[in-house]
Design a protein that fits this description.
15 helices, elongated
C-alpha cells in the first residue's frame, strides 16, 4: 500500500495514508487512535530508560551513593534557599562515573532520561538547546504522570561543550550552556517554543552530568548555586570490591583482587574490565581451535618463490613465532607437509619445546588418498577402494567395472599367449649355463633416530579423532589454499 501510495503521489510525507481506515487495524492498534506510526517513529519513546540491561549484584561505593542520593533528595524536597539543580560528577576516564550513576538510579527506583554528548551538536543552530528543554520536560512528565522519581542525565558533556586547545566554539555550544543556566535559575518554567502560558508550571527535575574535566565548561555554569561538583576517584577499598564483583564468579577472593591491584597500581577500573574480557577471548579462541576446527590448520613453515611450475621453497623465519601464537608448547599436533617442509618444521618445533608432536609418514599426499581436506573419510566412489590386510597395511586400487563377453575372451587369449611365452623363456634359460652369483649388496646405513614420533595416516587420524590432536599443515600457504 505504501509503495503504491508513493508511486501515485508526489507527496513524500510517509505519514500520509498511515491512518485508521486506510490500512489494516492490525497495524494501527486500538490504543493509538487514528495515527498508526508506521514509518515516522515519532510516537515511539526512546528517551526513557528502564535500566533493565543492568543485571547482577554490583558493588556501589558508599561515598558515591551518598552524594547521589543527597542531591536527589534535596531537589525533591521543598526547601528554602538556593539548591543546585545540577550534580557534576567528574574524574579520570574509566573510573565508572556513568555506570555508577545508572546503578544508583536503579537502586533508588529512578526512571532517568538520558542525553548523550553526541546530541548536543546539530547542523541547525538552536536544536540542541531545544532538545535539552524537551528532554527536561519529558522527565517532568514522568514525575507528574507516573508518580516516579526521574532525572535528566547528560553523559560526557565536556566532549562536546568543553573548551579545549585548538577547538572551535559554535552557536550550539553557547546555547547549550545558556539553556542549562536558564534551567538552573528557573527549573519549573521551561518553554519549547509554544506561546506563553502563565499556568504552565512543571515539576523540578534534577540534572546529572558526567565529565572528565568540568573546568573546560563555561565558568558561570559551575557556580555553587547552579552546580554541585563531585570529583569521583575510587579508593583502594572501592576498587578491590568492584574488581572482586567482576571476577567473583571465577572463584577469586578479595585477597587475590588486592594482589591484582598491586600488580597494576596505576590502571583505571576499565582496565580490569578489559582484562576480564580478554580472559573470555582466550578461552573462546582455544575452544574454537580445539572443537570447531575442521580438517587441518595451516601454519606455513615455507614460502614459495619463483614462477609457476618452477616454484622454490624457502623457510619462514617467523614460523615458530606464528605457531606459538596459535598453539602453546604443550599442544598435541599431528604434522603433515611436503618432503622438505615437514622435517624442517618438526626439528624447529622440537627445539622450541614441543613434545607431543607426531609426523605423518608420506605427508599430505598420503593423507589425501584416504581423507578429504576437511578430514572426512573418502568413500569407495569408483576412484579409490580401501582395503585393510591382516597386518594393518593399506591397499589402494581401482575398481574394475563388469567386463563384456568380448573383453573376457580377449583377456583369456592374452593370458594363454603370456603363459606360452613364459614357458619358452624357461626352456631357454634351462639350456644355458647358470650366471655367476651377484655381488652382495652393501648394507644400507641405518637412519638416524629422530626426536619425534612418526605415525601412519590411519594412526594420525585416530590421534585426531580420539586423543585430541590437531592436524597441522606446514606446507606453503599457496599449496594449502589449493
Amino acid at each position: 500500500y505504501l509503495y503504491e501510495l508513493g508511486r501515485q503521489s508526489v507527496n513524500t510525507n510517509i505519514d500520509v495514508g498511515a491512518k485508521t481506515g486506510n490500512i489494516d487495524s492490525l497495524f494501527t492498534g486500538g490504543f493509538l487512535g487514528v495515527d498508526g506510526d508506521i514509518a515516522s517513529g515519532r510516537l515511539r519513546n526512546y528517551e526513557i530508560r528502564s535500566l533493565s540491561h543492568i543485571d547482577g549484584d554490583y558493588y556501589m561505593p558508599p561515598a558515591f551513593v551518598e552524594r547521589f542520593c543527597l542531591h536527589m533528595v534535596k531537589n525533591y524536597l521543598k526547601m528554602d534557599g538556593k539548591i543546585p539543580l545540577i550534580l557534576g560528577v567528574w574524574g579520570p576516564k574509566g573510573c565508572g562515573k556513568s555506570f555508577q550513576v545508572e546503578l544508583c538510579c536503579k537502586k533508588m527506583g529512578v526512571t532517568p532520561i538520558i542525553l548523550s554528548a553526541g546530541e548536543l551538536e546539530d547542523e541547525w543552530a538552536g536544536n540542541p538547546g531545544r532538545l535539552i528543554r524537551e528532554r527536561y520536560r519529558k522527565a517532568a512528565q514522568v514525575i507528574k504522570n507516573q508518580g516516579k522519581m526521574s532525572c535528566l542525565i547528560i553523559n560526557d558533556i565536556d566532549a562536546t561543550c568543553g573548551r579545549l586547545k585548538d577547538t572551535q566554539m559554535t552557536v550550539n555550544n553557547q546555547m547549550v550552556m545558556g539553556t542549562l543556566m536558564n534551567l538552573c535559575d528557573d527549573p519549573t518554567r521551561v518553554s519549547v517554543g509554544e506561546e506563553w502560558n502563565e499556568g504552565d508550571i512543571i515539576a523540578r527535575c534534577p540534572i546529572i552530568v558526567t565529565a572528565n574535566d568540568l573546568s573546560t565548561l563555561y565558568a558561570p555554569l559551575l557556580r555553587d548555586g547552579r552546580m554541585d561538583k563531585f570529583y569521583w576517584q575510587p579508593t583502594r577499598e572501592d576498587l578491590v570490591h568492584m574488581i572482586h564483583r567482576t571476577f567473583e564468579d571465577d572463584g577469586y577472593s578479595l585477597e587475590d583482587m588486592g594482589a591484582l591491584l598491586d600488580r597494576f597500581p596505576d590502571q583505571p577500573l576499565d582496565f580490569f574490565g578489559a582484562l576480564r574480557s580478554r580472559m573470555y577471548d582466550s578461552g573462546i579462541f582455544q575452544w574454537v581451535q580445539q572443537e570447531c576446527a575442521k580438517g587441518s590448520v595451516n601454519v606455513p613453515a615455507v614460502v614459495l618463490k619463483g614462477r609457476p611450475l618452477h616454484w622454490e621453497e624457502f623457510p619462514i623465519d617467523s614460523f615458530i613465532h606464528d605457531l606459538q601464537m596459535r598453539f602453546p608448547a604443550g599442544s598435541k599436533l599431528a604434522v603433515i607437509g611436503g618432503e622438505s617442509s615437514a622435517a624442517s618444521a618438526m626439528q624447529q618445533m622440537v627445539d622450541a619445546g614441543y613434545s607431543e608432536i607426531a609426523e605423518v609418514v608420506g605427508g599430505y599426499e598420503s593423507w589425501n588418498k584416504l581423507f578429504k581436506p576437511n578430514g572426512a573419510r573418502r568413500e569407495a566412489d569408483g576412484q579409490y577402494k580401501i582395503d585393510y590386510a591382516s597386518g594393518g597395511d593399506m591397499c589402494v586400487g581401482a575398481d574394475l567395472p563388469e567386463a563384456e563377453e568380448a573383453l573376457r575372451k580377449s583377456a583369456d587369449r592374452t593370458k594363454h599367449m603370456m603363459a606360452s611365452m613364459m614357458e619358452e623363456q624357461r626352456r631357454m634359460r634351462a639350456s644355458q649355463p647358470p650366471p655367476p652369483p651377484p655381488p652382495e649388496p652393501e648394507p644400507e646405513p641405518e637412519p638416524e633416530p629422530k626426536d619425534w614420533w612418526e605415525v601412519r595416516v590411519l594412526e594420525a587420524h585416530g590421534l585426531v579423532e580420539t586423543e585430541g590432536y590437531t592436524l597441522l599443515d606446514v606446507r606453503a600457504q599457496r599449496d594449502f589454499d589449493k
